[in-house]
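F.,

This is the one I mentioned.
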């Protein structure tokens, strides 16, 4: 049926993000970097943009297209803009990292970048398995690390994702932050890539 002038337009998440990025400068991202304890350049590389008092990140489909927008308010509450479709958080610039790290949420994905990983962030501890697998195949990656949040749902969701990935003949290892709830907290506490490699060095890849 043809649309009428009373029909609401479809939400164009890619256009929304491009517009938000056009008016976002690093100085607008810096207060968020200070609040979150993350490098501002990594927030920028994940496509961070500010609108009003919100920090936003684009979500991508398995083909790499932007399919939705995730928001974070100053009080820490998180939502998606109406009309968004759930996807995964990816860098918006090529990093060419060898090690891919799957984690939970955009801020953990930013922390992964700060630790020299190529991140794939899921919006929550469950879901988006096909987007993850399609991204890995598109990148030509056949070995990946999943960093689970150190709680029951986080570990269960990571184990479920690992099953999907192994079924696609991609080697995967399952790890968790040492002594902290999530990867961002571990990074904020001073973890370096050397610390991470030492802590996870005995975790074997299985497929």
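My design for it:
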């Amino acid at each position: 049926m043809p649309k009428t002038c009373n029909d609401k337009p479809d939400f164009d998440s890619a256009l929304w993000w491009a517009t938000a990025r056009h008016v976002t400068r690093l100085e607008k991202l810096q207060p968020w970097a200070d609040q979150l304890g993350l490098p501002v350049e990594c927030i920028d590389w994940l496509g961070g943009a500010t609108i009003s008092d919100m920090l936003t990140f684009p979500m991508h489909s398995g083909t790499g297209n932007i399919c939705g927008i995730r928001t974070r308010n100053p009080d820490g509450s998180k939502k998606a803009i109406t009309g968004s479709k759930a996807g995964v958080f990816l860098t918006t610039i090529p990093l060419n990292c060898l090690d891919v790290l799957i984690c939970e949420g955009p801020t953990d994905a930013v922390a992964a970048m700060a630790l020299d990983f190529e991140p794939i962030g899921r919006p929550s501890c469950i879901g988006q398995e096909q987007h993850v697998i399609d991204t890995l195949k598109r990148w030509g990656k056949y070995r990946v690390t999943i960093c689970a949040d150190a709680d029951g749902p986080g570990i269960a969701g990571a184990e479920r994702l690992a099953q999907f990935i192994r079924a696609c003949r991609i080697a995967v290892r399952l790890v968790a932050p040492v002594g902290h709830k999530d990867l961002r907290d571990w990074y904020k506490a001073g973890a370096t890539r050397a610390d991470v490699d030492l802590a996870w060095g005995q975790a074997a890849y299985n497929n």
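Residues 178 and 186 are 7 Å apart (CA to CA).

Talk soon.
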